[in-house]
Write a structure and sequence with these properties.
39% of the residues lie in helices and 13% in strands. By secondary structure, the protein is of the alpha/beta class. α1 (31-42) runs parallel beside α2, α3 (87-101) packs across α4 and α7 packs across α8. The longest helix has 15 residues, at 87-101. Bound molecules: NADP nicotinamide-adenine-dinucleotide phosphate. The site of NADP nicotinamide-adenine-dinucleotide phosphate has 27 residues, from α9.
Length: 280
């Protein structure tokens, strides 16, 4: 089991990815994102998850520079947005993200959403970036099993990560098993269901028993199900709280109680239906 914020999972290409990181979706460019990322790094976080569409890559980059932590100790993820899918446009989008971040490489670059018919071409661009040593790992996001199966038919390089919505109301058991079989690390987005799970009575009861908060129980459950997690907060106290999950272990009985909460219920769109940015 991971023992600290520095604990990593080894991706199938040997790259070490932290089990825990900070998400910055909907965090405002400028002081809000700069202060959140700096607070996270100061408190031991080493992994930051952004995306071109979040429009805060410049602030993330500034925070990284001001953090004083050497670049090679950090793990930085960004994602190619839907409207940039396609071979040449993805290569261009990567350069734009790097420039905004002020970085020479990313640790992980993801296809943000599958869309319908461009992700194979987009994947070829990610493979090129990877083969040229421009990015340490490549992956996908919001891919169902059928998207992965389709991609794997032609891919030269298997995605190292699949980042999907994952929380006690959306447990993605088949997808998790598929990814584990293929050596693809699953990563949870909206692990707290954007705050909607924090009042759940089963979770609050479990939390009380361990003297932990509901958020900590959920994030600990991510780790015990072997899923990388990246909760978002702009508040330093919560940034600290969320990461304080390495000093307790949920019992088998409590893991089963949480398993019983699944409702296959999303807070975000179903990837099969999400076509924003793909329209001509
Ligand atoms: N690949 C994708 O398509 C995709 C989609 C969505 C998200 N993501 C990534 O996943 C990350 C996490 O997902 P998310 O931001 O959607 O949602 P989330 O992490 O599930 O929840 C964030 C919300 O919970 C609140 N919160 C955080 N910690 C808390 C705590 N300890 N107690 C009470 N409230 C707390 C935050 O408010 P405050 O900020 O006010 O604390 C915020 O409103 C994103 O930031 C992004 O990096 C990826």
């Amino acid at each position: 089991m991971p023992t600290s914020l520095k604990s990593t999972t080894r991706l199938h290409n040997g790259v070490e990815m932290p089990w825990f990181g900070l998400g910055v979706y909907k965090v405002k460019e400028g002081s809000e994102v700069i202060e959140s990322v700096k607070a996270a790094i100061k408190n031991g976080y080493r992994s930051i998850d952004t995306a071109a569409i979040y429009e805060n890559e410049e602030g993330v980059g500034q925070a990284i520079r001001e953090s004083g932590v050497p670049r090679e100790e950090l793990f930085i993820t960004s994602k190619v947005w839907n409207s940039d899918q396609g071979y040449e446009s993805t290569l261009q989008a990567y350069e734009t993200s790097l420039k905004k971040l002020g970085l020479e490489y990313l640790d992980l670059y993801l296809i943000h959403w599958p869309g319908k018919d461009k992700y194979k071409e987009t994947w070829k661009a990610l493979e090129k970036l990877y083969k040229e040593g421009r990015v340490r790992a490549i992956g996908v996001s919001n891919f169902h099993i059928h998207h992965l199966e389709e991609l794997l038919k032609e891919a030269e390089i298997k995605p190292m990560v699949n980042q999907v919505e994952y929380h006690p109301h959306l447990q993605q058991k088949e997808l998790l098993a598929f990814c584990q079989k293929e050596g693809i690390q699953l990563e949870a987005w909206s692990p707290l269901k954007q705050g909607q799970l924090l009042q759940d009575s089963t979770l609050t009861e479990i939390a009380e028993k361990y003297g932990k908060t509901t958020a900590q129980v959920i994030l600990r459950w991510d780790l015990q199900t072997k899923v990388v997690t990246i909760p978002k907060s702009i508040k330093e106290q919560r940034i600290i709280e969320n990461a304080d999950i390495f000093d307790f272990e949920l019992s088998q009985e409590d893991m089963e109680k949480i398993a019983g909460l699944n409702k296959d219920e999303r807070v975000g769109p179903n990837p099969d239906e999400f076509m924003v940015g793909f329209e001509e």
